[in-house]
Amino acid sequence: MNFKKILEHQKIHASVPCRVDLGGTLDISTFYLPMNHMSPSTFNIALDLRTVVWLSPWQKGYVKVSSRGFEAAVFKKDEAPFNHPMGLMFAVAKYFDAHGVHIHIESASPPKSALGGSSAAAVAIIAAFFKALGNPIDPKQIAWLAHYTEASVAGVPCGMQDQLAAAFGGVNQWTWKMGKGSPEFEQNPVFETNQDIEQFNLNILIAYCGIPHVSKEINQQWVKSFVCGETRLIFEKIADLTKNFSKAVKNKNFKAAAEFMNQETKLRLEMTPDVLDNTGKKLFEKAANCDCGARFTGAGGGGCLWAVGEAWDIQHLRSVWQEILEPVEAAKILDTKIETKGIIIHKP
After folding, report:
1. The domain spanning residue 203 has which CATH number?
2. An example Gene Ontology cellular component term from the record (predicted)?
3. I need a surface site. Which of 72, 295, 342, 343 has the fewest CB within 10 A?
4. How far apart are the C-alpha atoms of 79 and 304, rounded to whole Å?
């Protein structure tokens, strides 16, 4: 479908949040189906470091994708490679048989920071195409479409939590299960009011370690060890810790939440020591010394760490982490807050 004429009349502008998480990997069907008896779940927080997408007119028969941190690419609509660094974005465009469109992506989060940026971009692009076509913005439908598109081209098993944080926003515990004919999720908001969410900002801290991450290798190790039967019991412990962490946060028992988070991180380190780089290991150790919990985001291997704890402990940890990050190129404490909104279609 040629979107050029549609977009000449109205440029489409959509945005979604990124996320930090605990209990990731459990959102992959390889894990949650064999663990169905445990009702596995993932905890995540949407952040106001939003990924913004613009759809604008381009040459008929071609699709252009540009994004900060990547070289812009243009392909004929039937020749775009899905194994390209921005292949997911071209795959999304192909779902709509789109051409005559320039997809421009701007993310407020650092590139390859393990905050779910590529999945968030796919959600934003789908929402933008829905708007261009006059379709209703259904967060659930858009999240599933983004998930299945990514799973079809990634070459590795993919989870669902990144798309849900982007589509819905907020602080949620997502429970994974099988429905009558397809996988399903259950959304469990952790807090009842926006005031509670606003207050929770004082109990978290997010740092960028300055090293872009590559999640595929670590994820592949987790999948392989689970499929081989080597780490099933470890992931059952992770499932329990995720539930306990979510409950502790809900009850505002942040010291207990910190302990559950550190236990989860230690289990991941046992399986994959590279899940934390050298800077990440220093941040993790200092967090524990400050009575806080710390964990990599996504599949780790560089990117971001986030911490949870009592407000005064987090305030102390901030200065400790800043001292560690100062000599590391591009590393920093991220200036961000919890985002309660998911997909936003911006007015022209």
Report:
1. 3.30.70.890
2. cytosol
3. 72
4. 35
Do 86 and 65 contact (CB within 8 A), yes or no?
Answer: yes
How far is Cα 268 from Cα 29, in angstroms, rounded to an integer?
19
Find the farthest-apart pair of alpha carbons in the chain and give their distance in angstroms, rounded. Answer: 59
Judge contact between 135 and 38, C-beta under 8 A.
Answer: no
Residue 270 lies in a domain: yes
The span from the CA of 51 to the CA of 67, in Å, is 10
State pLDDT tens for residues 101-151.
999 999 999 888 899 999 999 999 999 999 999 999 999 999 999 999 999
CATH number at residue 154: 3.30.230.10
pLDDT tens per residue across span 170-213: 999 999 999 999 999 999 999 999 999 999 999 999 999 987 76
Residue 91 counted as domain residue? yes
Say yes or no to pLDDT of 214 above 70: no
Full residue range of the structural domain in which residue 213 is found: 194-333
**Joined tokens for residue 260:** 């559950």
Total domains in the fold of the chain: 2
Whether 16 and 35 share a structural domain: yes
pTM reported for the whole predicted model: 0.96
Q: How far is 105 from 201, CA to CA, in rounded Å?
A: 27
Examine residue 340 and state whether it is found in any structural domain, yes or no. Answer: no
